[in-house]
Amino acid sequence: MKRRLTTILALMLALVGSAQAQEFESAKDAVKNMGVGWNLGNTLDAHNQKIVDINDKAYWGQQGLESETCWGQPKATRELIHMMKEAGFGAIRVPVTWYNHMDSNRMVDQAWLARVKEVVDYVLDEGLYCIINVHHDTGADSYDKNGNLTGSHWIHADYNTDLLKTMADLVYYASLWTTIAREFYDYGPKLLFESQNETLDKLNSWCFASFNAPGQYDEEIAKSAYTAINEFNKAFVTSVRTHGNMSPTGEDVENAKNDKRNLIINTYGACNGSGNWNKHLKDPLTNLEIPDGEKNHIIVEVHAYPSIVNGSTNKGITTIKSETKELMDGLKTNFVSKGIPVIIGEWGTSNVDAATTDYAARRGLMLEFVDDFVKQAKDNNIATFYWMGLSDGHYRSMPAFNQADLAEKIVKAYHGASHQGKYPTPSTAAVDYVVTYTADWQELNLYSGSAIKLSDYKGIRVEMDNDSYVGKLQVKIYAGSGGSDSAQPLTGASSTITFDAATTGSNTQRITLQTMIGAQKAVLRDAFLIKKDGTEEKTEISVFWGCTLETQPRETAINGVQVAQVDDGVIYNLAGQRISKPTKGVYIQNGQKYIAK
Question: Of 20, 448, 567, 594, which residue is 20 to 30 A from 118 by alpha carbon distance?
Answer without folding.
Answer: 20
